[in-house]
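$ ./design --mode recover --in tokens.txt
reading tokens...
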């Protein structure tokens, strides 16, 4: 993913979407947050925005040491951030446990600091938990994946507290939806979606 653009801070309902790990992306008290890193955020965004019960998905950066990082900085590995998606979901329609199950299927959690051709710590597999319940659920889910022996190698996904979330530049938002004919969309995202549609029945919720 090699693109140019300017970093902006989104405003939603008058609240900046640059927040600590406990702040929700919106003020709907019936929504909960989940934050995952699993390679390019374009892929995870396209997957989770198709999941029933997910209200919004926002790509961004988390887990680094530099304030207000730009995509160019993150993609060079200068800041320590991971590319992530911040998910707002309705807990009455989908559970955090189910989101974790989809997360494991949406990427290869045994690859350290890479996903396919995307290489670097910014593409690391990580679960950023927002409370102790999410931490325990993530640890139990990771253990279950390892015990299943689905993968030949152990899961390397980091489970760490959520920190400040920085929304990605706007040209990253809804990338697959806005750029369906781009090479990355056709050769990476679309095949992933087709595979997951057959495995877990996700459908296009964006239309």
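writing sequence...
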């Amino acid at each position: 993913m090699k693109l140019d653009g300017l970093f902006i801070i989104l405003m939603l309902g008058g609240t900046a979407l640059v927040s600590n790990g406990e702040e929700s992306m919106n003020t709907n008290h019936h929504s909960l947050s989940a934050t995952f890193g699993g390679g390019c955020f374009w892929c995870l965004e396209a997957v989770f925005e198709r999941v029933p019960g997910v209200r919004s998905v926002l790509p961004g950066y988390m887990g680094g040491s530099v304030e207000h990082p730009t995509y160019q900085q993150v993609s060079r590995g200068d800041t320590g951030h991971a590319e992530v998606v911040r998910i707002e979901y309705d807990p009455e329609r989908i559970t955090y446990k189910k989101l974790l199950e989809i997360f494991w299927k949406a990427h290869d959690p045994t690859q350290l600091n890479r996903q396919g051709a995307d290489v670097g710590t910014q593409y690391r597999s990580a679960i950023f938990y927002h409370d102790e319940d999410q931490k325990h659920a993530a640890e139990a889910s990771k253990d279950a994946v390892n015990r299943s022996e689905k993968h030949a190698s152990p899961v390397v996904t980091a489970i760490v507290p959520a920190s400040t979330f920085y929304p990605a530049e706007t040209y990253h938002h809804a990338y697959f939806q806005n750029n369906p004919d781009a090479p990355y969309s056709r050769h990476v995202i679309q095949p992933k979606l087709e595979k997951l549609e057959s495995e877990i029945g996700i459908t296009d919720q964006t239309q």
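exit 0
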